[in-house]
Amino acid sequence: MGMQINIGDHVSPQAGYAAIPNEYLGSMRWARTKARWIASNIQSANAFFRTLPDGRSLTDLLDDSSIWINYHATMPYYGETNRVSGKEIAISRMAFRIGRWTVLATLVHELAHADGAPGGADKQAERAVLACKLGKQSELDTGIDDPYTPFNPNISG
Ligand SMILES: [Zn+2]
Fold it and tell me: In this structure, are residues 118 and 84 in contact, taking their beta carbons and an 8 Å threshold?
């Protein structure tokens, strides 16, 4: 079964984490399918995830049916994981409104937190987005964000 999308069949213990609205389910399912494709086809993805504090690969996380993807209607950023190494992830309305590639990048970023990436000043969670080839190495090297990729080299946390 693997990582689960909350379609109204899960009550998150985290306040504000809700079922994904119908209008966004297509984007969410596309992002999960694309994440699985990345895990199978882009070797740097699993390799990077294994370097994170909990040492799990992206494939391991996507196969983990205790991880739930929820929705958040009002948070003023793209996503959140309930805690470092947590199992409850929320993707925000803000991310869904931008589009499915942003949803995908947010999913990857939050799965890195589920794998122990600490947040705060740390940049490992967003580096996972680059390891999934959702950005350019030149963005990391120069620190200049290319708005046509979902990776942002300046995001910490
Ligand atoms: Zn983060």
Answer: yes
Q: Rounded to the nearest whole angstrom, what is the distance from the C-alpha of residue 20 to the centroid of ligand 1?
A: 20
Distance 80 CA to ligand 1 centre (A): 7
pLDDT: which is higher, 157 or 127: 127
113 lies in which domain range? 4-142
Determine if the pTM surpasses 0.90. Answer: yes
Q: What is the CATH number of the domain that holds 90?
A: 3.40.390
Q: Roughly how many angstroms between the first and final C-alpha of the chain, as a whole number?
A: 29
Q: What is the pLDDT of residue 49?
A: 98
User: Into how many domains does the chain fold?
Assistant: 1
Report whether pLDDT(59) > 90: yes
Residues 65-85: tens digit of each pLDDT = 999 999 999 999 999 999 999
Residue 62 lies in a domain: yes
Distance 87 CA to ligand 1 centre (A): 14
Q: Which residues 6+ apart lie within 8 Å of 71 measured at CB?
A: 6, 17, 18, 19, 20, 21, 24, 90, 91, 92, 93, 96
What pLDDT was estimated at residue 68? 98
